[in-house]
Write a structure and sequence with these properties.
The protein is mainly α. It has a domain of 40 residues. It starts with 22 loop residues before the first helix and ends in a 10-residue tail after the last helix.
């Protein structure tokens, strides 16, 4: 039976076992890229929603939403 000469059948250097050496760094780079993409998405969403947030804060200040007893008039 003839063996396939693909990636999985390559001979590894002496003293090395398990997965290829670059797997960890590649996975780490992918994870960092995903974090950067998620951060950029969150920042973009915050920038888009900022005018609405400012409007809400102004409304809250106008109606004076404080907890506890109201001040006597």
């Amino acid at each position: 039976m003839r063996q396939h000469k693909g990636f999985a059948m390559r001979m590894r250097p002496a003293g090395r076992a398990g997965a290829p050496a670059r797997t960890g760094t590649t996975a780490q780079r992918v994870l960092i890229a995903q974090g950067v993409a998620l951060g950029a998405l969150a920042l973009g969403l915050l920038v888009l929603e900022l005018p609405g947030i400012v409007r809400e804060v102004r409304i809250w200040r106008m109606i004076d939403l404080r907890s506890g007893a109201k001040r006597p008039r």
